[in-house]
Amino acid sequence: MQFQQLAYFLAVAETRHFTRAAEVSRVAQPSLSKQIRALEEELGAPLFVRARGNITLTPAGEALLPLAQRMLTDLETARREVQELAGMRRGRVRLGATPSLCAGLLADALARFHVRFPGIELHVEESGSRDLIRALGRGELDLALIILPLHSSDPELVTVPILRESLIVVSSMDHPPPTGRVSMRITDLRDRPLVMFRRGYDVRDATLYACRAAGFEPSLAVEGGEMDAVLRFVEAGLGVAVVPSMVLKNRPGLRGTPLSRPRLLRTIALAHRKDVAPSHAALAFRHGLMGYLGTLTEADLGEDLEVIAPPEG
């Protein structure tokens, strides 16, 4: 059994057409058909029911399909690992990050990594922390910047805390500030309409929990937005929102007010699955990210953000 035969088998299984499968595989149709027949002879069973204009899998083909997919995926993983070992000229990092980090520190860290390893493909998934944790568990990401703590129902992850950040209240510069003070209490949000993130954002859960702990249910003016939408709704004067401090950068239409009593903090961690070792490319990115964080000064971070990443050995 050859890997190329399995690739041709998958192409036919996906297209349900020998000619289209040959086009996708960039091979002559007679050659593809010959390899499929050789695979069937070796396995001792037909893999397809060949009816005019209708190609379907036989029971043997249905049994082979997931095995062939796994074998070819493992082959691609092995190929990438070998290429990464050969000087890190090729490879891939699938990274998840929250929108505030994508708009803030992550861009510079990615740029530094790309300069050093231009052949490494960078795939970034931007989403809420809860969604990223689930994506890690499904194997769709190599690394993710998530918010701690984990829940008991979360997949088993290895987490390294790297940043601690304050949450603040943002309001429109065109509307009166939430209070006349330099900071706010959670109870000051009792009678103010809130613009709220969709489910999947940790900051949504943190805001609702803090309000309920203070004895009230917040009034929601708009609910269900992504980060950019929430900030735009606040700029338009629909309400205020509790957000990570770093999103205020380059947002002149927004005013930020610190929270106190209680102060809302969140810990950002770099995570990967416990049962899957990170690839060489992912480890190189982790090392580069830690090194980048080590170069940041208080002026770079501001008073609401603190680096807590351990030194890389």
Automatic annotation (TrEMBL):
Keywords: DNA-binding, Transcription, Transcription regulation. GO terms for molecular function: DNA binding; DNA-binding transcription factor activity. InterPro entries: LysR_HTH_N, LysR_subst-bd, WH-like_DNA-bd_sf, WH_DNA-bd_sf. PROSITE patterns: HTH_LYSR. It comes from the Bacteria. It comes from Actinorugispora endophytica. The lineage of its organism: Bacteria, Bacillati, Actinomycetota, Actinomycetes, Streptosporangiales. This is DNA-binding transcriptional LysR family regulator. The keyword DNA-binding applies. The keyword Cell membrane does not apply. Belongs to the LysR transcriptional regulatory family. Residues 1-58 form the HTH lysR-type domain. GO terms for cellular component: protein-DNA complex. PANTHER family: LYSR SUBSTRATE-BINDING, TRANSCRIPTIONAL DUAL REGULATOR HCAR-RELATED. Pfam families: HTH_1 (PF00126), LysR_substrate (PF03466).
